[in-house]
Amino acid sequence: MRTYWRQRNDLVRAAGRHIQRMQKALTQMNLQLANVLSDVSGVTGQAIIKAILAGERHAHKLAAFRDCRVKASEEEIARSLEGNWQEDLLFVLKQEQAGYEFCQKQMTECDRQIEQYLQQREDRSRGASLPEEKRKERLKKKKGNAPQFDLRAELFRISGTDLTRIDGIDVMTAMTILSEEGWDRSKWKTEHHFVSWLRLCPDNKVSGDKVIGKGRLPTNNRVTIALKMAASTLWASNTYLGAQFRRLKTKLGAAVATKAMAAKLARLVYRMLRYGMPYVDRGAEFYQAQHRQLQIKYLKWKAGNGYFAADLRRCVLCPCGESQQAERV
Fold first, then answer.
1. What secondary structure does DSSP assign to 18-53, as a single string?
2. 114: nearest Cα among 164, 41, 172, 168
3. Residue 89 has what pLDDT?
4. Four-CA torsion 210, 216, 219, 222, nearest 10 degrees
5. What single DSSP character describes residue 313?
6. Contact, 4 vs 12, CB < 8 A?
7. How far apart are CA 60 and CA 238, in angstroms?
8. β-strand partners of 214
9. Alpha carbon distance 43, 15 (integer Å)
10. Closest C-alpha among 114, 103, 105, 174 to residue 138
């Protein structure tokens, strides 16, 4: 499964490079489709490019291929198609379009092979039904490079748990985790060993039982990269993990906060796969209230140890996650 998934990811990257070179050829011909279309690999973009390669040069006829979901009008699209038709650049466009279509065809074959492989694996769900998808916003738009079958259902069947219940982890990230590591977590004694294997733990420089410095643990582990990307999406999430990430980002910076939240996600993944523990989001408000109580408890402790807290009733979190400072008397 790892080989199939890696091959598919390589094809996705190759298709992206073809799209970039197609965009470059269009720009060199002064065809500014990027100004009116967010993606030339979409329905409208592909229809226009195929018509150009078929010999159509009239701007308004090309603009007529506009899909109803495109925000730009036909007139705006037509103005962006008033360019020069250089034979050499049209040849490049043709070659890159053929390369892109070939990658799409290969990805479809990979999807069929992955689906066939997953269907042959042992069912570990014990007859349990697939949980309802947690985040409804996922249903609004399907990613263009998403598998052409129900990957989430197959992953639930072979692993017995739905990793997409964890905030930030989508089905593509879950597939990367399971394809790279499998679903057996017994080879890592504890979740701390798992996090250390992912190189998401601190690299403390210890001398004389004292931490004299901290370093970074570089890695090209695909799961580590996927978890960091998943953690970075929590910035706008109105969830418990989202609130925690925003506080850490304010306090420690984006890089450190992303690594810390990736380690948090890794621990949650370990618990779900090793012990079958369900993940329940308690919400951003619960985290903020919990953190506020910890801050008040801390200030009360300081007040009882020779520190002065002016007014504990005002010791609530501000939007940036900071609290009032106590002064030593």
1. HHHHHHHHHHHTT--GGGT-S-TTSHHHHHHHHHHH
2. 172
3. 95
4. 100
5. G
6. no
7. 44
8. 204
9. 16
10. 174
| pLDDT for residue 327 | 43
Which amino acid makes up residue 122? E
pLDDT digits (tens, 9 = 90+) for 123-134: 888 878 888 776
Beta-carbon contacts of 252 under 8 Å, excluding residues fewer than 6 positions away, are 260
| CA distance between the termini of the chain | 64
Residue appearing with tokens 């420690």: 252
Helix (H) / strand (E) element for 200: namely none
**Location of structure tokens 């279509």:** 101
pLDDT at position 204 is 76
Half-sphere exposure of 41 (CA within 13 A, CB side): 20
Instruction: Tell if the pTM clears 0.70, that is, is over it.
Output: yes
Q: What is the DSSP string of 50-116?
A: HHHHTT---HHHHHTT--TT-SS-HHHHHHHT-----HHHHHHHHHHHHHHHHHHHHHHHHHHHHHH
